DNA sequence: ATGAGAACTGTAAACGTTTACAGTGGGGGG
DNA sequence: CCCCCCACTGTAAACGTTTACAGTTCTCAT
C-alpha cells in the first residue's frame, strides 16, 4: 500500500526518456513534440508533480517572500498585506507572514531566516529600530525593504509615511474650524511612530504659534483604552475640556469617542476628534471619524514594488553602498463627521 | 568581491573535521566537546547558516503550513489567521498565506502546491465547494483541514460553524424582545455560508411558527452596500418597514444601519438589527451591533490543532478512510445596543 | 547519397544537507 | 599487556532537480 511519490526519474523510465528530457518538458525548453507528449502522458498517469524544494536547491530561489510585522491583525499592517500579496503573486511569489509581536529578537530571527533561504526577500515594518536590528538589516542575505524609517545611511530600501505633514494637516484643519485648545493622545514614545507623532505635534503647534499645554497631552498604548483613559484625563483639565482631540491612531480616537459620549459631550460641537491611519474603523464609527490617511495601502504597494525590483535585478541584492532608495508617501486628511458634523 | 556563501563543507574544511560532524553539531547530536567548539567557532567566524532548502530536500519537510482563504482582509478570516499563526509557530511552522479571491481554480492550485512540497499542511476555508475542489481535497498530498462544511464522507478533517443554531439564537432573541416582522438580508446563495444561513433562517422562522415574507428577504453580496440596499428595499415594503433585521454578516448590518439612520428610523426602537460573525466592527459601530459570534477565532485555533495532530503523527497524513474528524464550534449571541438600546 | 548543421537527447555533475555504515582511537577489564 | 567495547568521526550515498557538455538523430542543400 506504499504509494511511492513519482519523481522525475519515475517518469523518465515510464516514458523511456532521460530525466533531462522530463525536466525540459516541465521547464518549457525545446523538446520534440512526440517526446513531450509521452512525458506529459506518463506524468498525468502517475500523478507526477515537480518537487519545488529540489528545484529551489538548484536554482537557489524559493519563490517566497516574507512579510514581518508586529501584529498582522492591526488594520494598518493588514492594509499593507492586502496590497503586497497581489503584487508579489503576479510575479509568482508566495507570501510568508510573520507576526513578531514587536519583539526585536524575533524580527532579527526573521532576518536570519533569509540566510537559511526561507525566502528570497523580505518586507518588514519594525516598530522599534534597535541597533541590533540595524546590524541585521545591513547584513541581510537577501533583499529587504523596510516600511518605516531607518537612520540615514542604512543600506536598505525603505518606504516611509510622513507623520510630520500628516499631523500638520490635522492641526491646520482643527485650527481652520476654529479650535484653539487642542489635546493630543499618543502611543508609546519609544516606538518609531509614537516618537515621530510626538515631535510632529510639538513642531506643528509651534508653527501655528500655539504653546503645548502638557496637561492636554496623554501618552499610553496604541489601544482603544488609551483613548478612553486619555480623554478622561484631558476632560478633567483645570481649564475645562479641550475643544479638539488629536489622536495618534484610529483606535485611540474610538476610545476617546466612547469617553466623550459617556461624558455627554457632543462630537464635534463640543470636542472635535481626529484619528490617524484612516483605517476602515474610521468610516464605521459614529460619528464617522476624520482621520489622517498615512497611506498604508500605498506603502505596502510601493514596498512590494521596490522589493520586486531587487528580486528581478541580477544578484546585486543588497543595495550597493548609497543606492538605497527611500520613498515617502504623502499623507492625506480624510474629513468626516467627527470634525465637521455635517453629513451624518 | 564575490563572497561565497559558506556551506557545511566550508566549515568542515575550516574546522578540520568532516561535514558529518558539522551536520551533527547543528543537529544537536553527540559530538566531542572540543569538536563542537571548533565547529561553532568557525561557523560564527564565517557566518555560516544552515540551508533550510537542502535540509528540506533530505527530510521531506518544509516546516511551512499554508492558509488559504478568499480574502485575508475579511475580518472573519483574519480572526482565524491570528489564532492559527501562534499555534503553528509554537510548533516551529511558518505560515504561508494565500488570498484566492474565492476562485476555486486558485484553491485547487494551492492544493496542488502541497504536492510540490511547498508546505507540509494546509488550512483552507473554501467559500464555494465545487466537485473539482472536493476531488482535489480527497487527493491532497499532505494533511488538510477545511474550515467550513464539506459533504459527509469527504476524507478531510473539518471545523465548522453552526449557522443554524446561530440564526436560531438571533431569531429567538428578536422574538423575545417582541419583534414580529423580521427581515433578512443575506449574501449569495451559491456560497456555503449564504446557502446555510438562508436555510437556517427559513427553518428558524418555521420553528417559531412565523411565515417567511419574501418581500422581507433580500439577497446580495456579503458587503456593506448590500446592507444599505437591502434595507432600502425592505423599508419600502407595502406593509411598512419590518421591526427587525437579521443580517448575514456584520458588514451587511452596518450598511443597513446607514440606511436606517438616513431614513430617520431609530435603532433599535423602530428597527432592531442583528449582524453575524461578531467582528470587531460590531463593537465599534453606532449603535454597537448585536451579533452572532460564529467563533472564527476558535475555529482557527481548532483547525490548527487538528492539523498539528496530523503533522505530528507519523506519515498517515490523509485520514484513513472514515477517520476524518469534524469539529463543530457553538455559536453565541453577543447582545449590544442595536437590539436592546440600553447601554449606549 | 553525402555532409554540414540544426535540433534534439542523454550522461553526469552539481546544489547543501542528513545519515547508514564503516572506521578510528582510547580506556578499562581481564 | 591485550583485547574489547564504546564514543566519536569520516566516507559516501541519497534526496529530486537543473544544466553543461557531449552525443545522437534529423533535415536539407549539394
From TrEMBL, chains A, B:
One Pfam entry name: Peripla_BP_3
Top-level taxonomic group: Bacteria
Keyword annotations from UniProtKB, A to Z: DNA-binding, Transcription, Transcription regulation
SUPFAM superfamilies attached to this UniProt entry: lambda repressor-like DNA-binding domains, Periplasmic binding protein-like I
CDD domains attached to this UniProt entry: HTH_LacI, PBP1_LacI_sugar_binding-like
Gene3D superfamilies: 3.40.50.2300, lambda repressor-like DNA-binding domains
UniProt-listed InterPro entries: HTH_LacI (IPR000843), LacI/GalR-like_sensor (IPR046335), Lambda_DNA-bd_dom_sf (IPR010982), Peripla_BP_I (IPR028082)
GO MF term (any one): transcription cis-regulatory region binding
Record domain HTH lacI-type: where: 6-59
Name of the protein in its database record: LacI family transcriptional regulator
Taxonomic classification: Bacteria, Bacillati, Actinomycetota, Actinomycetes, Streptosporangiales
Amino acid at each position: 500500500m506504499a504509494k511511492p511519490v513519482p519523481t522525475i526519474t519515475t517518469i523518465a523510465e515510464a516514458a523511456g526518456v532521460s530525466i533531462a528530457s522530463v525536466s525540459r518538458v516541465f521547464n518549457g525548453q525545446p523538446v520534440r513534440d512526440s517526446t513531450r507528449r509521452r512525458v506529459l502522458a506518463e506524468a498525468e498517469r502517475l500523478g507526477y508533480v515537480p518537487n519545488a524544494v529540489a528545484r529551489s536547491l538548484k536554482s537557489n530561489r524559493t519563490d517566497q517572500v516574507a512579510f514581518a510585522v508586529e501584529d498582522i491583525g492591526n488594520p494598518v499592517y493588514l492594509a499593507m498585506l492586502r496590497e503586497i500579496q497581489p503584487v508579489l503573486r503576479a510575479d509568482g511569489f508566495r507570501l510568508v507572514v510573520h507576526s513578531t509581536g514587536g519583539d526585536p529578537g524575533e524580527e532579527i530571527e526573521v532576518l536570519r531566516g533569509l540566510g537559511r533561504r526561507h525566502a528570497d526577500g523580505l518586507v518588514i515594518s519594525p516598530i522599534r529600530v534597535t541597533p541590533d536590528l540595524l546590524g541585521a538589516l545591513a547584513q541581510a542575505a537577501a533583499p529587504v525593504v523596510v516600511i518605516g524609517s531607518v537612520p540615514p545611511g542604512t543600506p536598505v530600501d525603505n518606504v516611509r509615511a510622513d507623520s510630520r505633514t500628516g499631523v500638520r494637516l490635522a492641526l491646520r484643519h482643527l485650527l481652520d474650524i476654529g479650535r484653539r485648545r487642542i489635546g493630543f493622545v499618543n502611543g508609546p514614545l519609544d516606538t518609531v511612530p509614537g516618537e515621530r507623532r510626538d515631535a510632529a505635534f510639538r513642531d506643528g503647534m509651534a508653527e501655528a504659534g500655539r504653546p503645548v499645554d502638557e496637561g492636554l497631552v496623554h501618552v499610553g498604548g496604541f489601544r482603544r483604552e488609551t483613548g478612553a483613559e486619555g480623554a478622561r484625563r484631558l476632560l478633567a483639565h483645570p481649564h475645562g475640556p479641550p475643544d479638539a482631540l488629536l489622536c495618534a491612531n484610529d483606535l485611540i480616537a474610538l476610545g476617546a469617542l466612547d469617553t466623550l459620549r459617556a461624558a455627554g459631550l457632543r462630537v464635534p460641537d463640543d470636542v472635535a476628534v481626529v484619528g490617524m491611519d484612516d483605517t476602515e474603523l474610521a468610516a464605521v464609527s459614529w460619528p464617522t471619524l476624520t482621520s489622517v490617511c498615512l497611506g498604508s495601502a500605498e506603502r505596502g504597494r510601493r514596498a512590494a514594488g521596490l522589493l520586486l525590483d531587487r528580486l528581478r535585478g541580477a544578484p546585486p541584492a543588497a543595495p550597493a553602498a548609497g543606492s538605497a532608495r527611500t520613498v515617502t508617501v504623502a499623507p492625506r486628511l480624510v474629513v468626516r463627521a467627527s470634525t465637521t458634523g455635517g453629513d451624518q
